[in-house]
């Protein structure tokens, strides 16, 4: 049977074999678009069988899969892509990408970071992102479209240089945010009030202290936290003395100033920067007092308060062009500082019983200025501001290092320690 079949096929002419091949192609649906009257095997108008026809048929399933609906995630990304493709060219450039990131509440991202993001996602290196590149980028950089993570940019990245035509005035004020809430100075103030009340309650039944509310330094809180030059080995006292206040007026004045000025700074610079400035002022106050007047006891948060005052001056200097009414604010703080300085000098010369620690005030103010330049946000860094930053940081650490070395290696300069 197989030999007979082969001999029969060989007996056919080439024309007959071609006709049979065409007939089988038509029956298999290879030419579905050919009208019925043209499907005759003898019709010469029928196109010849070619390899390309087979390839086209193999691509049909792929085309059908592309016609299926997009996934929900991909559809959302396409809507986001089309929304920010402002020129409708099917591509997203650097400016459009920056607009997208800004909508994610990362308003202060610098242009060079946007360009880096685009370059990393630009697979074909044409300087733009098509939808496929954009979709792949969204899978790897979801922080760009999620508000919780993009908030990170606002805390650590300074805002960009403004585009031509933008107004600089007021850029500093626009950085104010109540998230997270400015509670640093409020928390410090609450602790100071509690420590004050502990001593007041302790002496409430003592007739000798009825007329001097909270002015005793023998209460449990004051005894534990006050800066005592005879107990310098208890190193926490160099900071903890800020919780002790002598008299209700001493406490109220410090609370009012530190809350008012501290919250204003924290709205722009965030809690940890303000806390650093405040504590640096407190530490500098005790360190300066210990070095210049080694037998003086110290109480109160005035070193931190003066640090906040001069920190405002520091941020005005560093953000002068970006602040609204910067000259007015600077003059207001300078007038306050010189008025307080003049009042202090007058009180010191006229009052023989004056016990105000002016060195602590001065040391705290100097620390607030230097640390403020070093840690507070600078919205637009200029060359001279970089130089000033290095000077401030080096000068502060040089002063603090000198004070620590003197306390450690020159013990005879200070009063003998009491361990009772």
TrEMBL record:
The chain crosses the membrane at residues 183-203, 238-264, 271-290, 296-318, 325-346, 358-376, 388-410. The active site is at 302 (nucleophile), 361. One of its GO terms (molecular function) is serine-type endopeptidase activity. This is EF-hand domain-containing protein. Residues 9-21 have a biased composition (Low complexity). It is a multi-pass membrane protein. The keyword Lipid biosynthesis does not apply. Residues 1-76 are annotated as: Disordered. Gene3D superfamilies: EF-hand (1.10.238.10), Rhomboid-like (1.20.1540.10). The lineage of its organism: Eukaryota, Metazoa, Ecdysozoa, Arthropoda, Hexapoda. Belongs to the peptidase S54 family. The gene is Dmoj\GI14374.
């Amino acid at each position: 049977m197989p030999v007979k079949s082969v001999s029969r096929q060989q007996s056919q002419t080439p024309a007959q074999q071609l006709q049979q091949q065409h007939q089988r192609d038509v029956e298999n649906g290879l030419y579905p678009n050919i009208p019925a009257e043209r499907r005759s095997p003898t019709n010469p108008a029928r196109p010849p069988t070619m390899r390309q026809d087979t390839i086209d048929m193999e691509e049909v399933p792929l085309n059908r899969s592309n016609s299926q609906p997009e996934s929900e995630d991909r559809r959302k990304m396409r809507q986001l892509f089309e929304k920010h493709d402002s020129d409708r060219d099917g591509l997203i450039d650097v400016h459009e990408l920056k607009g997208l990131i800004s909508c994610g509440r990362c308003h202060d991202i610098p242009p060079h970071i946007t360009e880096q993001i685009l370059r990393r996602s630009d697979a074909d290196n044409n300087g733009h992102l098509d939808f496929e590149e954009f979709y792949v980028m969204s899978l790897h950089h979801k922080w760009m479209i999620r508000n919780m993570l993009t908030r990170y940019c606002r805390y650590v990245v300074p805002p960009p240089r403004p585009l031509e035509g933008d107004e600089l005035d007021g850029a500093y004020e626009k950085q104010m945010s109540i998230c997270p809430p400015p509670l640093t100075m409020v928390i410090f103030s609450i602790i100071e009030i509690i420590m004050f009340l502990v001593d007041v309650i302790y002496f409430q039944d003592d007739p000798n202290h009825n007329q001097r509310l909270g002015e005793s330094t023998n209460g449990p809180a004051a005894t534990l936290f006050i800066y005592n030059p005879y107990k310098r080995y208890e190193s926490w006292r160099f900071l903890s003395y800020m919780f002790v206040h002598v008299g209700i007026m001493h406490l109220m004045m410090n609370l009012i100033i530190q809350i008012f000025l501290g919250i204003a700074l924290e709205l722009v610079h965030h809690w940890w920067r303000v806390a650093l400035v405040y504590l640096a002022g407190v530490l500098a106050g005790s360190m300066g007092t210990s070095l210049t007047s080694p037998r003086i006891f110290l109480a109160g948060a005035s070193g931190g308060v003066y640090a906040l005052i001069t920190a405002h001056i520091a941020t005005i200097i560093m953000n002068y062009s970006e602040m609204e009414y910067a000259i007015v604010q600077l003059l207001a703080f300078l007038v306050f500082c010189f008025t307080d300085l003049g009042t202090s000098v007058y009180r010191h010369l006229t009052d023989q019983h004056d016990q105000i620690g002016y060195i602590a005030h001065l040391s705290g103010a100097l620390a607030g200025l230097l640390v403020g330049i070093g840690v507070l946000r600078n919205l637009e860094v200029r060359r001279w501001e970089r130089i000033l930053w290095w000077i401030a940081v080096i000068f502060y650490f040089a002063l603090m290092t000198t004070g620590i070395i003197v306390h450690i290696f020159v013990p005879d300069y200070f009063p003998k320690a009491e361990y009772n």
